Amino acid sequence: MPTPGKHPSTALRHLLALLDLLVEGAPAESFALPAGEDVHLSEPEAAAIADATRVALRIRRTLSQHRRREAELAALFDTAGDLAGLRDLDAVLKAIVHRAKLLLGTDVTYLSLNDDEAGDTYMRVTDGSVSAAFQQVRLGMGEGLGGLVAETARPYSTGDYRDDPRFRHTATIDGAVAEEGLRAILGVPLRLGARVIGVLFAADRTARTFTPEEIALLSSLADHAAIAIDGARLLDETRTALVDLNAASRTIEAHSKAMRRAEDAHDRLTDLVLRGGDVTDVATAIGALLRGGTLIHDAEGTELARAGADPQPPSARAVAASRAEGRAVPVAGTWVCAVLAGPELLGSIALSGRADLDDADRRLFERAGVVTALLLLLRRSVAEAEDRVRGELLGDLLTGAADPAGLAARARRLGVNLNQPHAVFVLHPETAPRPRLLALAARIAHTRKGLAGAHHDDVVLVCPSEAPSACAADLANELGHALADPVTVGAAGPATGPAALAGAYAEARRCRTALRALGRSGAGAALRDLGFLGVLLGDQTDLGGYVQRTLGPVIEYDAQRGTDLVRTLTVYFDAGMNQSRARDALHVHINTVVQRLDRIGRLLGPDWQRPERALELQLALRVHQVHAAG
User: Fold this and answer.
1) 442 vs 371, 459, 470, 502, CA distance in Å?
2) Are 201 and 185 contacting, i.e. CB atoms less than 8 angstroms apart?
3) Which of 218, 239, 453, 473 could form a cystine bridge with 394, CB 3.0-4.6 A?
4) Residues 323-361: pLDDT tens digits?
5) 283 by DSSP, 3-state: which?
6) 72 and 214 Cβ atoms separated by less than 8 Å
């Protein structure tokens, strides 16, 4: 109460002003006594005014708390209404995090969900985050603040996370938090009954303490959020169940159509085989049915047919996997199916351009493998019968026992024209199995319209050729590569007519034997390629041809330029390949001998003085000398 005579109006005015400030909701600093007015107050009046000011501030705080609580409750009701209207889980989660950021006014809010299978909690949605590492972090149960909330189902907060020893710090979590720049963190559990499904967070980039009111507000929001999340999840599961039901219905219908399509395709392919279609027809039909490129190989990996695809060897690993599983298997965008007859591998089919092959088309592709097996078995039966006929014809040709006219007619029925020049090749493998060499020879004979088979202990190939030497070298290389083992090929010919083949066979055998005796296993040649030894072993002595093959470049050089290199070479050999003695015999300067020998080397090649080559040259010089004298 004011004391009489001490300006009571000043104290009263201040008390009335406090009431006005409360009504206006003025800030706390406005409640202080204006400067200079306290000099007019007695000590009791000043104390009374101070007490009144403190009471007014408490009333202001209470009113502010009520107003804030009312605003928070209104915001929670609004949030509950907003969440109830959302049906998409992602939209619900984003709305929860954004509303939490608005209500608490923090720098960042985020939400993590528990992964029951992995046993941890992972970041699901963030608002205000700038760090990619933070947005993808996972927390083990009990790790960091969030892991502890998820494990204990209790709220936790920290004024400065990096220095708080209550939490189990890890390098991953601490690094993500540091990269985001967070200091103060509050986390509350998202609960459905007794089960925690995740954690809702609010965080600031400056250190501070979260109030109990803020913790209670975020917890209330988390409770609403958990209900909304569960509702959205149930709705999503219901939608998924309906989608699955519709998908199952469509799958049954598609499966029924696929079965009918597979049966029709199987009937078409089988009918194609039974009507005499070949492997190419089947490959084309498979490619058309499955809308892809098709490759068919035999068990050795040789291409049999191709339709709409680039040539490529089969994957041995994929074929083995398909054979073991009994199903088509994918490899690098191509489907491979082993072609089997029981346990026997007949070959493989490859389907390209269909990396997305579904189950129905996969079964159709596997049925195509069964049809291809049927075709290959039929082909093999026919080929075995034809090979027997061809083998009998080849045996009669090589022995020369039958009537030549009859042999020619039999050959024509097999598509072989013996009236054109043919070469005979005798093949000898070093270690490879003889049946494999025989199969390769038969394939080559079929391609070149010739004959192949076993005769006595030899594998013999007869095919059209006017250059047996070159063909023999090519055959040795091709067969050696295919078998991964040296194959020696002795050749003879060309021979025209059935009667000439028996003699050519005998010469080819002698050539094969000579090649192996000379250490040239794995090579292919005719007797004419063996120098003077070939002349000795051959049936027809072609000495002029031998001289021309051995000395031809030197003889032609002398004839064109009037030089005397042939005589120089003869004297050089007679002198024991000694240049000084050759100089004396020729009566020329030593430099002239050197120059002539250098010219001879350029004409004959750098190896002309090797012992075996020098022997051939000396023999040719003697034959040439006798021929010139005659």
Assistant:
1) 25, 10, 20, 19
2) yes
3) 453
4) 888 888 888 888 888 888 888 888 888 888 877 877 777
5) helix
6) no
